[in-house]
Amino acid sequence: MIMHDKNYIRDIAERIKSKVDPSELPDKGLDELFDTYAVLALSKGGSVTNEDVHDAWSAWASKYDPTNSSLVPFDQLPKNIQSEDSRFTVAIREVAKSLN
Fold first, then answer.
1. The whole model's pTM is what?
2. Residue 11 has pLDDT above 80, yes or no
3. Which residues, 6+ apart, have CB-to-CB distance to 69 below 8 Å?
């Protein structure tokens, strides 16, 4: 069930974040990054893709890491870099499933 209080985005964001190894996370802008992942959980649910996650990350990176070499369209990334989004995709899907 989705909680509809003033902090529902942050609640979902924190739930997603709790499913990811903290050592794999950037050291700044985490609230903004995971807020976008929360929006993906609400809008895409179980159908969220690695490309969706990459696009959300790209919006975050354009502010926090604008020279990152992965700041290109998803289909231009090497396959091994594309697969790095999987851990976030899985976390978002798991949380999204629990919202229904």
1. 0.90
2. yes
3. none
Write down the residue that tokens 């609400």 correspond to.
Answer: 42
* DSSP 3-state of 36: helix
All residues at 6 or more sequence positions from 57 whose CB lies less than 8 Å from its CB, including other chains: 33, 36, 85, 88
Give residue-wise pLDDT tens across range 70-100. Answer: 999 999 999 999 999 999 999 999 999 999 7
d(Cα 35, Cα 98) in Å, to the nearest integer?
A: 17
The average confidence (pLDDT) of the chain is: 93
**Encoded amino acid at 57, one letter:** W
What does the domain layout of the chain look like in residue ranges? 8-99
H-helix segments, the chain: 8-17, 30-43, 50-64, 79-82, 86-99
14, burial (CB in 10 Å: exposed 0-12, middle 13-18, buried 19+): middle
